Amino acid sequence: MIRLVTCGLGGEGYLTFEGNEFGHPEWLDFPREGNGSSFHYARRQFNLVKDENLRYKYLYRFDKAMMHLEQQHKWLSGHDQWVTLKHEGDKVLAFERGGLVWIFNFHPTNSYTDYRVGAGWAGKYMVALSTDDHEFLGQGRVAHDTEHFSTPMEWNGRPNYIQVYLPARTAVVLRHFN
């Protein structure tokens, strides 16, 4: 989820390197005086994503899907951005960027049904990306074929709202259809 919120809200660029920040099996230590100028730990292990016994493949699949969605919607080069909701108690964050609605439930135990989120566009919304997909080692609780229809009533400072299911510790990106 941190990758998605960083890519969605982080500005005009996104940089990652092979999942190092998510548990590279060995530390990285480039040659320096303190390690005797050793190159022993100054290497990246590009093979990790191909090892079926490790979970790096799931991070790779998620990054690939996230970047594919960015190629379709170009939010990193867009200037439209609206933070719709920041609810500390529910631990939910929602925003609009690149013609998409991004919703994050950071709560460790609470899932929400029919959670209302303000939306700038009237019409139908469907899941474009979910962190809960089996493909990413999620539990598969978010159905991609569910259609979410907006209600024309102001909510969170937006002219419409949609209601979504938000499992604990998941994020969903919704695509708008006219």
Describe the protein.
The structure is a single chain. With 178 residues, the protein is an alpha+beta fold. Helices cover 15% and strands 29% of the residues. It has 2 helices and 8 strands; from the N terminus they run H-H-E-E-E-E-E-E-E-E. The strands form 2 sheets. The protein has a 6-stranded antiparallel sheet. The protein has a two-stranded antiparallel sheet with strand order 4-7. The longest helix has 18 residues, at 56-73. It starts with a helix and ends with a strand. The mean pLDDT is 90.
Main pleated-sheet profile: 6 strands, antiparallel
Mean pLDDT across all amino acids: 90
- Helical element count? 2
| Poorly predicted ranges | none
Structural class: alpha+beta
Shape: elongated
Report the C-alpha radius of gyration, rounded. 19 Å
Number of separate strands: 8
Q: How do the SSEs run, as a string of H and E?
A: HHEEEEEEEE
Percent of residues in helices = 10-25%
How big a fraction of the residues is strand? Answer: 25-35%
What strand line-up does the widest sheet have? 1-2-3-8-5-6
Distance between the termini: 28 Å
Condensed summary:
The protein is of the alpha+beta class and about 180 residues long. Helices cover about 15% and strands about 30% of the residues.
What's the helix and strand layout?
Blueprint (H helix, E strand, L loop, with lengths): L1 H8 L46 H18 L7 E7 L4 E6 L2 E6 L6 E8 L4 E7 L17 E2 L10 E7 L3 E8 L1
Antiparallel strand pairs: 1-2, 2-3, 3-8, 4-7, 5-6, 5-8
Throw out a few tags for this protein:
single chain, 178 residues, alpha+beta, six-stranded antiparallel beta sheet, two-stranded antiparallel ribbon, 8 strands, 15% helix, 29% strand, elongated
